């Protein structure tokens, strides 16, 4: 049975057992809990929003702390793996974590605070370095920059544009002033296209001097201070050094928290599970003494769960009937080889109960079509070897990633098969290496077990159409199975058998035709009875469609019109069938690009550096080719399932089973012996 039978149950238990029962259900992860819509004045629901928010914030703090540990205290060999797997934790360790969680959260917050302080110190250093940069041109100034003068003098500290000499600058400043005017001009530096000056003048000439300065573009400094610039710079540099030392101290302290990494993993998932529990707790209807739960379990686990809750907690557990408009969750149960394709199916939509689960059939076609599109034995070996090694080395990968790797492992095997069938191993790499480095000029060393598509593409196109027709027929047959399962014999004859008849008849009519002969290079000679039979088959199917497609209509004119429109739908079948030409197109693209890469590599293969250059071009080129065509094969194989195959019988509409359980992001619980 591909779709597991589900059972709806209700639970009523004493409120004193609420915590224990919820934790039991959360540990088991067998029941999808729903919010019960019970209208009763005696029932109430707890306000758990504040507690839930606290737990979520705690989990986020620990997540942040773990992220910081990756930077400041990286795990040994962590950089050698692209895939992180969950940490195996005994259940007793997790359950005993309740007393330690608060203290670990405090330490995680301390780690986050240390990082925050590092950023603040770094920002302060950047600010001080900018100040130092602004004060550096004023280093030779021996008075505070805030000085504005005395009772009889005025001091002007600022800049002029650096487009005039010292003499011109002085001449401009003393314009309209007496020759013996009390003015001291100190040119301190020329930097950044600016002239840095300090002017000391008697107040008696300040008005004229100020006007001259304005006309010459005088500006107050962007960076100023109340101290002598040299002293200020020295003070800032000392502050920067102090902050640097503090930053290093913080980093060392943060690195010491690496010893708590395992505990942080447990705490993060502990608080995440608590948040989920309190989210549910706020939805549970309860009285002063009793609380109620309702939800879905698999049929096989309903009785053991009911017995456990009754015997251990004295709970009352009752089986419930599904409401008429209620959609029960879907759990798929497939052979191990088909499970990797379940996420592909779920992306389109899970089947509803009572419908056909196409996972097993879809797996067969998916793997075959993927291999035909990638179609290179070398690429297939790399894909299967790479994914296989990852799966062997990492046993606790996230479920979705693990299934995806398993799918690509199978697709790699299929690719290897089709590669040898077509004679492709990194394109024509074996022949290229033999001719480039060993002077081999004979026939192909690796001969195809079937035929070479590059030399006979039309032959492959015909086979692709045949595989596509089988795929589409399978979809139509599944629809026929569901129709008969619903005891709709008339519907089976009208909507399924009629199309099989018409399509098969049209195919049989096509095979001996000149059109097929011009495409395939050969034509079949059918006996007269088979030619007549194909016409009768196609005509009979078309007649049934014409008369029966609109059978729900009593008006015969409308009925015939609807039937004629359905017959026109044969063009949709033709369009779907032509979509399978992508099996040819992507397969040829992989082979052609691989051969071009080998040709480019052979062009640089001569001379003493030839083998090295050959290897560089070969590795880079084929890496790019396998990446592009892996993506192409994945996308187009999905499209053949979603658009062509599913359109014949499948509409999804189911929803996934989401049992109440602990959310483990970092750990995996190992049951104690």
UniProtKB/TrEMBL annotation:
<keyword id="KW-0812">Transmembrane</keyword>
<dbReference type="GO" id="GO:0046961">
    <property type="term" value="F:proton-transporting ATPase activity, rotational mechanism"/>
</dbReference>
<dbReference type="GO" id="GO:0033179">
    <property type="term" value="C:proton-transporting V-type ATPase, V0 domain"/>
</dbReference>
<feature type="transmembrane region" description="Helical">
    <location>
        <begin position="526"/>
        <end position="549"/>
    </location>
</feature>
<keyword id="KW-1133">Transmembrane helix</keyword>
<keyword id="KW-0813">Transport</keyword>
<keyword id="KW-0406">Ion transport</keyword>
<feature type="transmembrane region" description="Helical">
    <location>
        <begin position="404"/>
        <end position="425"/>
    </location>
</feature>
<protein>
    <submittedName>
        <fullName>V-type ATPase 116kDa subunit family protein</fullName>
    </submittedName>
</protein>
<feature type="transmembrane region" description="Helical">
    <location>
        <begin position="490"/>
        <end position="511"/>
    </location>
</feature>
<dbReference type="GO" id="GO:0016471">
    <property type="term" value="C:vacuolar proton-transporting V-type ATPase complex"/>
</dbReference>
<feature type="transmembrane region" description="Helical">
    <location>
        <begin position="612"/>
        <end position="635"/>
    </location>
</feature>
<dbReference type="GO" id="GO:0007035">
    <property type="term" value="P:vacuolar acidification"/>
</dbReference>
<feature type="transmembrane region" description="Helical">
    <location>
        <begin position="364"/>
        <end position="392"/>
    </location>
</feature>
<comment type="similarity">
    <text>Belongs to the V-ATPase 116 kDa subunit family.</text>
</comment>
<dbReference type="GO" id="GO:0051117">
    <property type="term" value="F:ATPase binding"/>
</dbReference>
<dbReference type="InterPro" id="IPR002490">
    <property type="entry name" value="V-ATPase_116kDa_su"/>
</dbReference>
<feature type="transmembrane region" description="Helical">
    <location>
        <begin position="580"/>
        <end position="600"/>
    </location>
</feature>
<dbReference type="Pfam" id="PF01496">
    <property type="entry name" value="V_ATPase_I"/>
</dbReference>
<feature type="transmembrane region" description="Helical">
    <location>
        <begin position="556"/>
        <end position="574"/>
    </location>
</feature>
<keyword id="KW-0472">Membrane</keyword>
<feature type="transmembrane region" description="Helical">
    <location>
        <begin position="460"/>
        <end position="478"/>
    </location>
</feature>
């Amino acid at each position: 049975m591909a779709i597991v039978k589900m059972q709806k149950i209700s639970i009523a238990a004493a409120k004193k057992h609420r915590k224990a029962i919820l934790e039991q259900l959360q540990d088991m992860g067998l029941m999808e809990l729903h919010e019960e819509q019970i209208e009763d004045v005696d029932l109430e629901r707890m306000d758990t929003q504040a507690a839930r928010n606290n737990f979520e914030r705690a989990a986020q703090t620990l997540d942040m702390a773990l992220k910081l540990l990756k930077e400041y205290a990286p795990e040994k060999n962590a950089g050698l793996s692209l895939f992180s797997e969950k940490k195996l934790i005994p259940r007793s360790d997790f359950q005993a974590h309740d007393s330690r969680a608060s203290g670990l959260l405090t330490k995680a917050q301390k780690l986050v605070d240390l990082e925050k302080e590092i950023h603040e110190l770094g920002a302060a250093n950047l600010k001080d370095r900018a100040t130092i940069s602004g004060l550096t041109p004023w280093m030779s100034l021996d008075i505070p920059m805030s000085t504005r003068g005395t009772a009889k003098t005025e001091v002007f500290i600022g800049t002029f544009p650096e487009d005039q000499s010292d003499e011109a600058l002085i001449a401009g400043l003393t314009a309209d002033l007496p020759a013996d005017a009390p003015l001291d001009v100190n040119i301190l530096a020329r930097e950044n296209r600016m002239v840095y000056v300090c002017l000391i003048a008697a107040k008696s000439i300040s008005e004229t001097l100020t006007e001259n300065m304005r006309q010459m573009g005088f500006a107050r400094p962007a960076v100023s201070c109340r101290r002598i610039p040299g002293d200020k710079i020295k003070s800032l540099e000392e502050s920067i050094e102090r902050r640097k030392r503090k930053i290093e101290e913080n980093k060392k302290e943060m690195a010491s928290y690496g010893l708590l990494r395992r505990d942080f993993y447990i705490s993060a998932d502990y608080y995440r599970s608590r948040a989920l529990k309190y989210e549910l707790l706020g939805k549970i209807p309860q009285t002063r003494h009793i609380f109620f739960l309702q939800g879905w379990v698999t049929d096989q686990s309903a009785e053991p769960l009911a017995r456990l809750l009754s015997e251990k907690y004295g709970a009352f557990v009752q089986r419930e009937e599904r409401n008429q408009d209620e959609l029960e969750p879907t759990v798929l149960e497939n052979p191990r080889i088909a499970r990797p394709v379940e996420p592909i199916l779920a992306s389109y939509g899970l089947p509803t109960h009572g419908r056909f689960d196409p996972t097993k059939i879809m797996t067969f076609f998916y793997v075959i079509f993927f291999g035909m599109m990638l179609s290179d034995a070398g690429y297939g070996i790399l894909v299967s070897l790479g994914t296989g090694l990852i799966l062997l080395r990492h046993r606790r990968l996230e479920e979705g990633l693990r299934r995806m790797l398993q799918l690509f492992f199978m697709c790699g095997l299929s690719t290897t098969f089709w590669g040898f069938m077509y004679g492709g191993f990194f394109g024509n790499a074996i022949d290229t290496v033999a001719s480039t480095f060993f002077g081999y000029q004979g026939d192909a060393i690796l001969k195809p077990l079937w035929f070479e598509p590059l030399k006979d593409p039309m032959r492959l196109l015909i086979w692709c159409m045949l595989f596509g027709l089988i795929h589409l027929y399978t979809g139509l047959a599944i629809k026929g199975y569901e129709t008969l399962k619903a005891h709709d014999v008339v519907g089976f004859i009208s909507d399924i058998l009629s199309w099989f008849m018409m399509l098969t008849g049209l195919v049989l009519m096509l095979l001996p035709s000149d059109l097929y002969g011009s495409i395939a290079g050969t034509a079949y000679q059918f006996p007269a009875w088979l030619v007549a039979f194909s016409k009768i088959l196609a005509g009979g199917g078309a007649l049934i469609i014409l008369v029966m497609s609109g059978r729900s209509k009593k008006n015969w004119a409308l009925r015939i019109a609807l039937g004629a429109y359905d017959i026109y739908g044969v063009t949709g079948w033709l369009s779907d069938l032509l979509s399978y030409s992508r099996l040819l197109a992507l397969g040829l693209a992989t082979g052609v690009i691989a051969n071009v890469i080998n040709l480019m590599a052979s062009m640089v293969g001569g001379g003493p550096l030839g083998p090295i250059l050959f290897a560089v071009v070969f590795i880079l080129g084929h890496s790019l080719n396998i990446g592009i065509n892996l993506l192409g094969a994945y996308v187009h194989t999905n499209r053949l399932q979603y658009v062509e195959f599913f359109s014949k019988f499948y509409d999804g509409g189911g929803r996934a089973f989401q049992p109440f359980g602990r959310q483990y992001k970092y750990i995996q619980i190992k049951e104690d012996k």
